[in-house]
Amino acid sequence: MGKSRYDKPLSIDVSANQEVYVAAKLYDKAGKVVQTEDVSVYSQPFGALTPIDMDGNGTYELVGEQRIVGMNNTDTVSRINTVWGYQGEGKWNLWEVEYSTFLK
User: Fold this and answer.
1) Is 41 left (phi over 0), alpha (psi -120 to 50) or beta?
2) Can you give the pTM of this predicted structure?
3) Of 25, 38, 68, 101, which is least surrounded by CB within 10 A?
4) pLDDT per residue as tens digits for the range 44-90
5) How many angstroms separate the CA atoms of 65 and 73, rounded?
6) Alpha helices (runs of H) in 1-104, residue ranges in sequence order
7) How far apart are CA 5 and CA 96, in angstroms?
8) Closest among 79, 80, 82, 81 to 93, alpha carbons compared
9) Which of 58, 59, 65, 100 is CA-nearest to residue 81?
10) Dist CA 70 CA 39 (whole Å)
11) Are 26 and 41 in contact, with CB atoms under 8 Å apart?
């Protein structure tokens, strides 16, 4: 199977908390992640992974929900919802991605 159309990097807008993140040295003033041993930006594992037959064919797909966090676990930056379809032989294919964030 060829590459998915989702095989591209995702940029996340963190400008709502820009001053706090720059002061905490998570990001530089240009908006790039600052990688150090003490600080990292990360996503949570799936908070929910729900089987749903999205297309009514009798085969269940998985709908996943994840949070992207900023400085710590209480700092939710955005949410990502995905739909995964089983392709057989232990392989899953990403069908949909929905990204949401907060307005200032």
Assistant:
1) beta
2) 0.70
3) 38
4) 889 999 999 988 999 899 999 998 888 888 888 888 999 999 888 98
5) 15
6) 18-23
7) 10
8) 82
9) 65
10) 10
11) yes
Tokens of 96: 């949909």
Per-residue pLDDT tens for 57-70?
A: 998 999 999 988 88
- Amino acid letter at 91? K
Q: Which amino acid is at 77?
A: V
Give the whole-angstrom CA distance, residue 66 versus residue 20.
23
For residue 42, give the amino acid letter: Y
Structure tokens at 23: 């002061």
Q: Which residue bears the tokens 């591209």?
A: 8
Distance separating alpha carbons of residues 39 and 49, to the nearest angstrom: 28
What is the rounded distance in angstroms from the CA atom of residue 28 to the CA atom of residue 41? Answer: 13
- What phi and psi, each to the nearest 5 degrees, are found at residue 52? -140, 135
Lookup: tokens for 74: 């209480």
